[in-house]
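Re: the 233-residue chain
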Amino acid sequence: MDQHPDDIFTVPRLEQIPYLVHGFGTEKWRESDIEAKLKGKNFRLLFLNQIHSNIVHFIDEIPSDNLDGDALITRLDRLLMVIKTADCLPVLMVEESRKIIAAVHCGWRGTQSKVIQRVLKGMEDHYNGQLGSLLVALGPSIGPECYEVGQDVQQEFGKADLPLEVFRPHPVKEGKYFLDLREANLLQLLNLGVKRENIFTVDCCTHCSNFLPSFRRDGETAGRMLSFIGMSF
């Protein structure tokens, strides 16, 4: 894809929830744009110091500083949780009836260390969430034709007993593979009981789309895609 007419992606099913605010921003979307979109709604923005981990934070009160980790879960009103990505997979979740939301950053390390599974277990144990009714939105990420990784990554997935069919051998480079990051996380969601019809995808490859940030394409000059979710009761 070469261009996208809007500055933000949303999921129609999530837009049907009256108290929910969510979106996946494009290259142009900035923190100031989020603030403008939510002007007058008194949201507090919360970012993470993302460290490619499986650390999950339950936000039952507003923290004074940004937290180290890669996933946020809350039931608080007017707290907007923001994830930054530039090829990694952003995941937004809502358990509609109990008003539980989550924002997750899934790089290959977080995926291998099962950050998605820790989020789902946390939603069940901490907030009594029901995974059978959970709605999940998978945002834009680097696609399976563009995400080249080494054999070490495949071996780490094997050590974690994760399916290796998400890897495809590189046709030319020995010891290199293409990783389907989205599928790797989708399989974890399905295996834990999330219904396939409740999983929604913004199917864009960040590497191929010049309106989306990509570290693999642009290196240190790449911006960051802002993905966000919050509730206003």
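The chain has seven helices and 15 strands.
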